[in-house]
Amino acid sequence: MSIRKKAAIVSVLKPVDDARNYKKIGISLAETNNYDLFMIGYPSGSKPELPNIHFLKLTKFKRLSLARLFTPLKVLKFLIKVKPELIVSNTHELQLVILINKILFGSKIIYDIQENYYKNIASSKTYPFIVRSILAGYVRLKEWSFSRFMDGFLLSDPCYVQELNFIKSPYQIVENKSTINPPDPGISQKPNSYKFIYSGTIAEEYGIFDAINFIVKLKEHIPQLSLIIIGYCAKESTLRKLRGKISNFNYIRLIGGDLIVPQNKILKELENADFTLLPYKTDAYYSNRIPTKMYDCLMLNKPMFIRKNPAWNPIVDEFDAFIFTDFSNIDNKLLEQIKSGDFYFKGNHSKASWQYEKVKLIEFIDSIFNFRQG
């Protein structure tokens, strides 16, 4: 019987039971029974689902705080204790920490790229223009400098191959597809209650206020509709503005806001909804990415309101699941499409499923680790 290899999946802001880190990468590796997985991340109330997965929780902190600056030291302490043979990290904040571990213990290290941090910071309104320009440049320089020490790269979106010039071989695109089992084909029905949902990251640049304004206008035509907003909002000023804006509308409910919402709770609300709002802006820094919730909606047969985006054409052409809108105009054609229920009569659900990505992930990790399943 082979001895399990130790592997750590580390993060600063992602919870230990994060949808990608834990539900996808962690569980997929643990199910091979060839790895002992140590999930290091932000605290969560859930418990590991498999005996060879262990949660190592960081101390709670605010995103903009001194406590966050010292969090990498806590991660380093965990890594020195565990001594993993493989480390998968998804943030630039921990690059020095995992490099130290590589020097001390010879760990293989993989950078799991889920964001273009340079674009995120440079486009964000969290900091003044000069500050965010300097900070974005510093982060990109750090990623480029540490990239030579990486043993491999995972990419959550194909667009990163062109966007990030520090990526070197070997790398593997492992998209954030859905772990939900597909429903029986052709079960789509006309909605009775018209429950709408906005889920995931709550941010102005992600179109949250476009979504609310759209629902308020649509309410004039569909009186029975309601909206659930569920997710985490990192920016306090945005959250205050959001709460103030929805306070006059009893058909709009916020779940989370200043608290991270467990993924299973988000998926439960998504499953109960009739329509999903994805008001992503096509000229934004994230416009080439494919949102994870899009894959979840495809697996759950949920119609989605989106803007037209050329980067999404392969999925849009495959499934009759989308209602195009600019979120500022409501006409008769749009209303007819909402009420028709004519969705999901074509499309191959396997193209939205995690199962194919899982195979790619395990093969890639094993090749980097020089470890073959047996």
Biggest sheet character: 7 strands, parallel
Q: Structural class of the secondary elements?
A: alpha/beta
Order of helices and strands: EHEEHEHEHHEHEEHEHEHEHEHEHH
Integer count of domains: 2
Q: How many distinct beta strands?
A: 13
CATH superfamily of the largest domain: Glycogen Phosphorylase B
The amount of beta strand, in percent, is: 15-25%
Q: What's the architecture of the largest domain in CATH terms?
A: 3-Layer(aba) Sandwich
CATH class of the largest domain: Alpha Beta
Strand order in the largest sheet = 3-2-1-4-5-6-7
Relevant terms:
single chain, 374 residues, alpha/beta, Rossmann fold, seven-stranded parallel sheet, six-stranded parallel sheet, 13 strands
Write the layout of secondary structure elements.
Layout (H helix, E strand, L loop, with lengths): L4 E11 L3 H12 L4 E8 L10 E5 L8 H17 L3 E4 L5 H11 L2 E6 L3 H7 L5 H19 L4 E4 L4 H4 L7 E3 L21 E5 L8 H12 L6 E7 L3 H11 L5 E6 L5 H10 L2 E4 L13 H9 L3 E3 L6 H6 L3 E3 L7 H9 L13 H16 L5
Parallel strand pairs: 1-2, 1-4, 2-3, 4-5, 5-6, 6-7, 8-9, 8-11, 9-10, 11-12, 12-13
Helix pairs in contact: 1-13, 2-3, 4-5
Task: Outline the structure in words.
38% of the residues lie in helices and 18% in strands. It has 13 helices and 13 strands. The model has no long low-confidence stretch (mean pLDDT 90). With 374 residues, it is of the alpha/beta class. Strands 3-2-1-4-5-6-7 form a seven-stranded parallel beta sheet, sandwiched between helices. Strands 10-9-8-11-12-13 form a six-stranded parallel beta sheet, with helices on both faces. It folds into two domains: 5-177 and 354-369, Glycogen Phosphorylase B (Rossmann fold, 3-Layer(aba) Sandwich), CATH 3.40.50; 195-350, 3-Layer(aba) Sandwich (Rossmann fold), CATH 3.40.50.2000. It has helices spanning 19-30, 66-82, 95-105, 117-123, 129-147, 160-163, 208-219, 236-246, 263-272, 292-300, 313-318, 332-340, 354-369, and strands at residues 5-15, 35-42, 53-57, 86-89, 108-113, 152-155, 171-173, 195-199, 226-232, 252-257, 275-278, 304-306, 322-324.
